[in-house]
Amino acid sequence: MKNYLIAKNLRWLLLAVYCLAFVFSFAQNGLPVARMAVLAWVSAAFIIGNIGKPRRKQLQMVGDLAFYACMWLSYDLSRGIADSFGFPLQVELPRNIDKALFFGHDPNVWMQHQLWSKNIQWYDVYGSIIYFTHFFVPVATSVYLWIRYREQWVRYIRRFASVLFAGVLTYIVMPTVPPWMAADTKTFHYQILEPLHRSTGRGWNWLGLGTVSNVLLHGQQWANPTAAFPSLHAAFALFVVVFFWKQMPNKWVQYASLLFPLSMAWTLVYFGEHYVTDILAGWAYVGASFWFWNRWEAKRQVVEPLA
User: Fold this and answer.
1) d(Cα 220, Cα 225) in Å, to the nearest integer?
2) Which contacts qualify for 204-213: CB closer than 8 Å, 24 or more apart?
3) Enclosing H/E stretch for 234
4) Total count of domains within the chain
5) How far is CA 25 from CA 37, 186, 201, 202, in A?
6) How far is CA 273 from CA 21, 59, 276, in A?
7) DSSP SS3 for 197
8) Which of 146, 150, 163, 181 is 20 to 30 A from 307, comparing alpha carbons?
9) Separation CA 307–CA 305 (nearest Å)
10) How far apart are CA 231 and CA 280, in angstroms?
11) Would you say residue 265 lies in a domain?
């Protein structure tokens, strides 16, 4: 019993140190978005969270980490080649759907006409923070669940991986031009939209965290630019809320939590990153994943409540 308490206290102490190191690294270098860097941070959290646990748990951790790494690395590989299979590039379709939904108006253009200014506004800062949560919240949530409730981590990863790879499959068969590219006048020359400002990271500059903005810009340069439909930013913002929906203490908390995916949707449209159509598709993928796995688990009675 004494050894168990020592190991438990050591785990929590090292996790606290880990969190402080992460915050320091974030302030100096920005959030890690390179996949190997993300896996390194996740691996460190898994290892620290498993200190002092029995051999069975150690072997389980190795298997979980291997699956986690394979999931992300295969996603990166498949996403990187998704636009090389020769399927026709969708340029006008999502824009035309948006115009039909909004009675002939382009939501991206309309929002920038209403809100964008040369001077950074408070909502630019808010949008930059919300946009960047995509690179942190889903991964941090999975690490937390693995450390505290591994059964819930398994449920989370089933649904998460399904949305992830369904998105990649769609990127392969339906590569889609995002609004900022459709409005480009210098490089891509589609010009089916009025010019848009792709100012996703400038809110971080206002906060004095230019390194975050630089990391974001670097990530955008190597990412597949036609991986727009569905929007995984929109999908995973809703995903986290839906996963914890039944564990929320009351309806007011549930309704308040919806501000997160709605804020993400607003941000993606305002910054010209996605059409509303992309966002609705991302939400639909989340709904389909939860519907499938909820039914699968109910039949096998594998659902474990959070402790």
Assistant:
1) 8
2) 204/125, 204/128, 204/132, 205/120, 206/120, 206/124, 206/125, 207/125, 209/27, 209/30, 211/27, 211/28, 211/29, 211/30, 212/26, 212/30, 212/31, 212/132, 213/30, 213/128
3) helix 232-244
4) 1
5) 12, 35, 18, 20
6) 31, 41, 10
7) coil
8) 163
9) 6
10) 8
11) yes
Q: Whole-angstrom Cα distance, residue 262 to residue 254?
A: 13
Contact 125, 227 (CB under 8 A): no
Using CA atoms, how far residue 243 sits from 157, 194, 200, 300, in Å, is 11, 38, 27, 19
Q: How many Å is the maximal CA-CA distance in the chain? A: 69
Q: Is residue 148 part of a domain?
A: yes
Question: pLDDT of the chain along its 307 residues, tens only?
Answer: 555 566 666 777 777 887 787 777 766 666 666 667 777 777 877 787 777 777 777 787 788 788 788 777 777 766 666 666 677 888 889 999 999 999 888 999 999 999 988 888 899 999 988 998 888 889 889 888 988 888 898 999 999 999 998 998 898 888 888 999 888 877 777 778 888 888 887 877 777 665 555 555 555 544 666 778 999 999 999 999 999 999 998 989 999 999 999 999 999 999 999 999 999 999 999 999 999 999 988 887 754 555 3
CB 145 within 8 A of CB 153: yes
SS3 90: strand
- Establish if 271 belongs to a structural domain: yes
Q: What residue type is 33 in one-letter code?
A: V
Angle at alpha carbon of residue 140, lines to 279 and 56, rounded to 5°: 125
Structure tokens at 260: 């997160």
Domain assignment of residue 2, yes or no: no
Q: What is the pTM of this model?
A: 0.84
172 lies in which domain range?
Answer: 87-300
